[in-house]
Amino acid sequence: MEIEFSEGWQAVPYDRPVNPVTGDAASFYRRVMEKGGVQYVRGIDIVCRLPGMPERLQFIEVKDDRKREALGKELSDSRKKEPRHTELFRTVMQKTAGTLAGLLIAERLQDEILGPYACLSQQPAIEVVLLLVEPALPVGTLNPAENGIYQLGRKQRVAGLDQKLTNKLDEWGLKFHLYNLHPNRLSPDWQVRDLT
User: Fold this and answer.
1) Domains: count for the chain
2) Short-list 100, 7, 109, CA closest to 51
3) Which of 192, 158, 153 is nearest to 178 (CA)?
4) pTM for the full model?
């Protein structure tokens, strides 16, 4: 997937490994936060700074469950037993907390690349976004009644995840939005191109 942002937005990949093909260096999170054996610190995929004042940031986490479904046979037994919405809740919360810590450290270190984003001392408004891409419904394996139940169950799980993350992040003073690839469920400020 490729995300294109509105004019005036600044965006940086926050959780990016070194790219041996292009020579792009690893992100601050990979170079500083994970360096030296620090464990259990996680980082969000993309950090954006929105145009205008006062400062506003957006943390974007992308989860493409189509890939997960394709790799499903390789998942450990413990990950298979945990409901996906529970795992997503924990992941978004851990990555949000880790990214907040990373931006605070980047601000203290006056990191050049993260400079525009490392502005937590100015108390920016922060919005956390989960872009969740779900696999297509099984084709031909369900009768119409089963298909309807499957769709309803999926909608209920997603709605529950949305509500749970909205409530918890609100306790932290952060806004939350859950988007997907459906036209009516994408941010009005950026475009997603599905490259699959």
Assistant:
1) 1
2) 7
3) 158
4) 0.84
